[in-house]
Write a structure and sequence with these properties.
The chain is of the alpha/beta class and about 425 residues long. It folds into two domains: about 240 residues, P-loop containing nucleotide triphosphate hydrolases (Rossmann fold, 3-Layer(aba) Sandwich), CATH 3.40.50; about 70 residues, no CATH class. It is built from 16 helices and 14 strands. Strand 7, helix 6 and strand 8 form a beta-alpha-beta unit. The longest helix has about 35 residues. About 5% of the residues have low confidence.
């Protein structure tokens, strides 16, 4: 018999002794049918404990958002199941349970502009969930809840009468956060909530998330691609690559002992604040062809220290051996000579598409403005324009050279056309 309500507490993890709020078990998510079917997520499994922040990290298109949308029942699961407090919430469930899912699991979206109704006031946007679930006693209670929430996210009560287009990106994201938090959810799926914001605003939104977690015990599924931000906010991190979760570990454990090559590549891509070190940093490029999964199927295995890694039996043994040595693994390598070679490889193609060369453009003189007047003068005096273009080219005034060359060529074409027309008129006149 299906459950119509969630229990007060979820099951307890026997290994950690923590309450499991959300459990994703062997989930496959597929889009399309037949030969056109695409497996966006493959056999994904992880748990989120009550009161913690679990971050899902990976590059664009890896399946992070797809998993987040499956948690809020937008994307259906092709296989496996998702449990909330031990109750299955994926697939077909009773309507009463579906309403409880909406009530208890909220989402903060990546684009603060697209996720808000432009035709609704901020007051209605934040109150919509309260209306739908009757979470207020009377109008005065509703107003009090909305005003308190808008102040908690750093806005003012007078902002409630305005519309989303009247706010900046950071303010819109605060409105989206207020809309989610006013429902008093136990789990919030934060889908890259700061990637569309200015750097100076990101810290403010992250601090807001941590504040709500501390005051209300909210759990987060935090979806991101920037590991430097994830390190600040997360308790545990899951790394996903092309639909497969390749590594799960506690935050500092993952940064100290990144075992899977893809995790190393993500960590090596995090910018170093010191420009001299960043210049000499060698990026670790992940090559999936290093894995040989032709004979045995890879699995996500716990190698100890609450650290799970995806690989074949042979790879898992190597990962265990590395971890048992208990020596921190350096994913970031500083090597000036190797960095120079790498930089040369990355930039050797520059200049091949432009007859001027990239080095010449980079060393453009300060007075090389490319004024429109040069094109106009060269148009009326094309011979003089070609001469000027030749001189500018020699002096590396590339923009001026292009202006003169363009005007002279157009001027010569027009002059040639006029001469041809004049010749035709002379021939007609003599006939």
């Amino acid at each position: 018999m299906p459950n119509n309500h969630f229990p007060e507490h979820g099951p307890i993890d026997p290994e950690t002794g923590k309450e499991i709020l959300l459990s994703v078990k062997n989930v496959d998510i597929t889009f399309g049918k037949g030969e056109d079917a695409v497996r966006a997520v493959k056999d994904a499994s992880f748990d989120i404990y009550k009161g913690e922040t679990f971050s899902l990290v990976g590059e664009s298109g890896s399946g992070k958002t797809t998993v987040g949308r499956a948690v809020i029942r937008v994307n259906p699961c092709a296989a496996g199941e998702i449990q909330y407090k031990g109750v299955r919430i994926s697939g077909k469930i009773p309507k009463s349970l579906d309403r409880e899912v909406i009530r208890n699991i909220q989402m903060v979206f990546q684009d603060p502009a697209a996720s808000l109704n432009e035709r609704a006031t901020v007051d209605y946007i934040i109150s919509e969930g309260l209306y739908n679930f009757h979470l207020f006693e009377n109008e005065a209670d509703r107003v009090q809840k909305v005003e308190k929430m808008i102040e908690e996210v750093g806005l003012l009560p007078e902002h409630l009468t305005r519309y989303p287009h009247e706010f900046s990106g950071g303010q819109r994201q605060r409105i989206g956060l207020a809309r989610a938090m006013v429902m008093e959810p136990e789990l919030v799926v934060a889908d890259e909530p700061i990637s569309a914001l200015d750097v100076s605003i990101r810290a403010q939104v992250l601090n807001l998330l941590k504040k709500f977690q501390k005051e209300r015990g909210v759990s987060y599924l935090f979806i991101a691609h920037d590991l430097s931000i994830v390190r600040f906010i997360s308790d545990r991190i899951g790394v996903i690559y092309k639909g497969n979760i390749v590594e799960i570990a506690d935050t500092e454990e993952l940064f100290q002992f990144p075992l899977h090559p893809y995790t190393k590549s993500l960590i090596s891509a995090v910018p170093i604040p010191d420009p001299r070190l960043e210049k000499n940093k060698v990026l670790y490029a992940y090559d999936p062809s290093i894995h040989d999964y032709s004979n045995e199927k890879p699995e996500l295995v716990d190698i100890g220290h609450n650290h799970l890694v995806y690989g074949s039996k042979k790879e898992i043994e190597e990962y265990k051996k590395l971890r048992d040595e208990n020596k921190p693994i350096q994913a970031v390598k500083i090597d000036p000579e190797e960095a120079k070679k790498q930089s040369a490889k990355n930039t050797e193609f520059m200049g091949s598409n432009d007859d001027t060369g990239s080095s010449e453009i980079l060393s453009t003189p300060i007075h090389d403005t490319g004024s429109l007047w040069l094109t106009i003068i060269s148009f009326f005096l094309p011979v003089l324009g070609l001469l000027a273009a030749f001189i500018f080219r020699k002096m590396n005034y590339i923009r001026n050279y292009k202006r003169c060359k363009k005007g002279a060529i157009i001027g010569l074409i027009v002059l040639a056309a006029l001469i041809v027309l004049f010749g035709i008129f002379l021939i007609i006149a003599q006939l």
